[in-house]
Amino acid sequence: MIKHIKETTEYLQSKGFNKPEIGIILGTGLGQLIDDVTITKEISYNHIPSFPTATVEFHKGKLIYGKLEGKTVVVMQGRFHLYEGYTLQDITYPVRIMKELGIKTLLVSNASGAINSNFKKGELMLIEDHINLQGSSPLAFKGVEHLGERFVDMSQPYDTELNSKFETIANTNNIKLHKGVYASVVGPQLETRAEYRMLKTIGADAVGMSTVPEIIVANHLNLKVAAVSVLTDECDPDNLKPVSVEEIIAMANKAEPQLAKLFRELIKNL
């Protein structure tokens, strides 16, 4: 992996991806933040050596470099998932590349289902903690100790200073921002009624199919990290109605202006 990381990093540097300060991962239906970026360079994932390729039709699959609120950023427009057939090492490879390019802070977004009955679709949730239900770890491979500490402490995986700033920005701008625990599952199927009950019992406030692997690797690399979920559907097992991916994406798009505002204001104040 070290050889591949070096090759990928050198390729991107040769294309002008020089010393970004902040990395951003945009999740399902959350690509509009790109409109706020003054883009200097953009490269499709399938042109980057050793980079995975997005296979989900609603993920754009581009790495973008430019300026946002005066800061140099590198943005993943589209991410990777276990349900696409990738390994956890594939999924988190871009985080390692962004770190090698120079980022110190990683901001992550996702679309997720609301488990907490006090949360409603279209609202946002600041992730305070998570539950990994994906069956493994992106650090569970031979030689991981050459890339960082194998036994990473996860007592505070989300940066408290960044989270506090997000809360202040939300209050100032009248944005409803819940706080809660995010559970990450494999997917791609949505959950059954029994699974939603189980998730609520173990303490999850929202559920999705991403984010946790990237957070684990960000902590492995000593990056400051924060993540916000857009709640796209309500997962009440006693009143569960069928939901389509198209509906989930539509709700993510509707809620995205508030998410973009949070990200812009945070980046401005970093």
Q: What are the main properties of this structure?
A:
270 residues; alpha/beta; five-stranded mixed β-barrel; globular; Rossmann fold
What does this structure look like?
A five-stranded mixed β-barrel has the order 5-8-7-6-9. It is globular. Helix 1 crosses helix 2, helix 2 packs across helix 5 and helix 3 crosses helix 6. The chain contains six helices and nine strands, in the order αββββαββαβαβαβα. The protein has one domain: Rossmann fold. With 270 residues, it is of the alpha/beta class. Helices cover 30% and strands 25% of the residues. The two termini are 31 Å apart.
Under CATH, the homologous superfamily reads Nucleoside phosphorylase domain
- Low-pLDDT segments: none
The SSE string, one letter per element, is HEEEEHEEHEHEHEH
Quick check: average pLDDT? 93
- Biggest sheet layout: 5 strands, mixed, barrel
Fraction of helical residues? 25-40%
Pairing-aware structural class of the strands and helices? alpha/beta
* N- and C-termini, Cα separation: 31 Å
Number of helices, where a helix is a run of at least 4 consecutive DSSP H or I residues: 6
Number of strands: 9
Strand content: 15-25%
Overall shape: globular
Topology:
Elements: H1 2-14, E1 22-26, E2 38-44, E3 62-68, E4 71-77, H2 88-101, E5 105-114, E6 124-132, H3 160-172, E7 177-184, H4 193-201, E8 206-208, H5 212-220, E9 224-234, H6 245-268
Helix pairs in contact: 1-2, 2-5, 3-6
